[in-house]
Amino acid sequence: MKILVLNCGSSSIKYQLFEMKTKKVLAKGLIEKIGMKGSFLKFSTPEGDKVKLEGEILDHQTGIEYILGVLVSEKYGCLKKLDNIDAVGHRVVHGGEKFNASVYITDEVIKEIENCISLAPLHNPPNLKGIYAIKQLMPNIPQVAVFDTAFHQTMPGYAYMYAIPHALYKKLGIRRYGFHGTSHRYISQRACELLGVDFKKQRIITCHLGNGASICAIHHGKSVDTSMGMTPVEGLIMGTRCGDLDAGAITHIMEMENISAATTNTLINKHSGVLGVTGISSDMRDIEIEAWVNKNPTAQLALDMYHYRIRKYIGSYAATMNGVDIIVFAGGVGEMGAETREEVCKGFEFLGLQFDKKKNENQRGKELIISKDGSKVTAIVVPTNEELVIANDTLEIIEKLSTY
Fold first, then answer.
1. Whether residue 264 is found in the same domain as residue 343
2. Is 148 a catalytic residue?
3. 47: domain CATH number?
4. Per residue in 304-342, pLDDT tens?
5. Which of 193, 218, 234, 260 has the highest CB neighbour count under 10 A?
C-alpha cells in the first residue's frame, strides 16, 4: 500500500510518499512561496540528485497538482499512475476537544476541523486547503486527519484548565491543548523500543526542541502535561515565540505602545524568543557563534534563558510524575545541538541522571543513548519522524475501514 502524507502550511506544502510494506520513502519534497513570486518545488531523486522546479503556484490546489504531476512524470516519477496511491494522510494542527485520535475524513469531520479554525487561525486553514484539494483532484481516495493536539487529550483537567472564569472555557474553549503531539508520541514510543522497556510502565519527558519547541510529560503511555497551551506561544523560549509571559506584561505593552491585538500577536509570535532577546537571529547556531566565538553578552544571556527554561520544565514534570525514567531529545536543536543537550542535562544528578559527555559529543542527528551505563535516568536522542506516524495512522484506519 502506498500512502501520500501532506503537511500544508500557509505558503508551503511538505510531502512524502511511503511504501507501507517496507516503510520506505519513495518520494519527498517541499513547495515554498505559494501565492508569491518565485514559488518552487524542490525534491531529491532516488539517485540523490537535488531538483528545483520553479513555476507559478498560485494556491494549494495548484501546488498539490504539481506534486502529483511530478510523482507520475516520466523523468522524475516513481508511480505509473495516480491510482497507485491508496490513501492520503494529512497533518492537522488543531482538533480541539472533539478529536483525541486520528480519523477518517468525512464531510462531518471537515466541518469539525473548520469549527477549530478560531483556535488555530494560522494553521487549520492551510491544513484544510490540502484536504479540499485532494477531495477535488482525487475524489475517490480515502483521506485521514492526524492531529497535533490529539495525543494531549489525556491530560487531566487540573493540567489543562486555566484559572479564568469557567464561562470562557465553556464558550470559547480556552484551555491548554498542547502541540507537537505526533512528535512526542513517536519519540517516546521509539525510545522505549530502543531501550527494550514497556512504554506503558515508564515516566518519560520528551523535549521537542526546534524553532518551535515544547516539552511533554508522559506517564505510563499517556500525556499528562505539556508546555504549549491554547496556542503554540506558551511554554519554552523558541526561535521567534516568547514562551511563558505574564499576561499583565502583554496588556501593559499594548497600552503603552498603543498597539492592536493583531500587532501584539505578531510581536509575541514573530519578533520575540531568542530573536527578540538578541536582535540577531532565530537560529540557535547563530546565537551560539555570537555567544561563544564573538563573546556577545546578550547572545549568552539568550542561551542561558533558553537552557534554563528547558531545565525548569523538565524539573517540574519530574516532580508531577514522582520522578522520571527517560528523557528524550528531538527536533532540529534537540537532535543536532550537543551543546544544548549538555547544558540542559547539567544539575539533574539528583534525579539519577548520569550524563555521558563523550557519547553526547559523538551524537549528531542519530538515535543514541547519551547517559552513562547504569544511569538511573536514561537520556536519549531520537530523531522525530512525524510523517511516518501520519502514514502509520492512515494505514491503520484504512485497513479497519476495508474490513467492514
1. yes
2. yes
3. 3.30.420.40
4. 999 999 999 999 999 999 999 999 999 999 999 999 999
5. 218
